[in-house]
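We were asked to recover a plausible sequence for a given structure. The inputs and outputs are reproduced exactly as logged, with field labels preserved.

PROBLEM: sequence recovery
POSITIONS: 211
GIVEN STRUCTURE:
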């Protein structure tokens, strides 16, 4: 009897070992399937990211390039107009003195106007730079919330996304940066127009004796 009981215990122990090994293999297979599913999800995410972000990135790059080119050309024009007029003013003054009685007040008014135009052109450069920086920040935040949206499980609703603090923070930061960029852009445009007006005032002042 003791030998039979020992044999039964050994058989039970062997069965337990086999059962433990079977459960371990099932757990390993489940983990492998889970890792494979996560890998597939990440691959899908990267494919969706590439499909969604490539046009967005190209648009941002092209928009930045064209905006910078237009802004630089406009600002350079203001520098050239006011700076060139200010440099040429002494020679023009000497010419006018020989042709007609030009008052020194007119030349002084022109110099002040052209100098003001130069200062306003410099201020336009600063405002345009700040506006472009804010646009870049808005674009970066836009990429952030889009990444969060693309990385969310399939079928996630907008309401569920809004419950994500990182998602809402990126959305808010994008709106904030874009609003600031618009303010600085319009300010730069207004100051640039004032710089052009300063040149016109200076030109009218120096040519007033001809009237």
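RECOVERED SEQUENCE:
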């Amino acid at each position: 009897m003791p030998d039979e009981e020992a044999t039964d215990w050994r058989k039970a122990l062997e069965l337990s070992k086999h059962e433990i090994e079977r459960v371990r293999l099932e757990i390993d297979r489940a983990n492998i399937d889970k890792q494979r599913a996560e890998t597939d999800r990440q691959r899908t995410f990267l494919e969706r990211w590439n499909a969604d972000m490539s046009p967005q990135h190209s648009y941002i790059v092209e928009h930045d390039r064209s905006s910078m080119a237009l802004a630089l050309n406009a600002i350079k024009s203001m520098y050239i107009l006011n700076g060139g007029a200010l440099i040429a003013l002494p020679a023009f003054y000497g010419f006018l003195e020989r042709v007609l009685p030009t008052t020194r007040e007119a030349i002084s008014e022109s110099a002040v106007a052209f100098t003001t135009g130069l200062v306003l052109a410099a201020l336009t450069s600063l405002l345009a730079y700040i506006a472009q920086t804010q646009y870049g920040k808005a674009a970066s935040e836009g990429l952030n919330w889009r990444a969060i949206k693309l990385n969310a499980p399939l079928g996630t609703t907008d309401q569920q996304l809004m419950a994500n603090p990182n998602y809402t923070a990126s959305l808010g930061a994008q709106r904030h940066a874009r609003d600031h960029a618009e303010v600085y852009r319009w300010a730069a445009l207004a100051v640039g127009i004032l710089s052009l007006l300063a040149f016109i005032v200076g030109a009218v002042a120096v040519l007033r004796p001809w009237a």
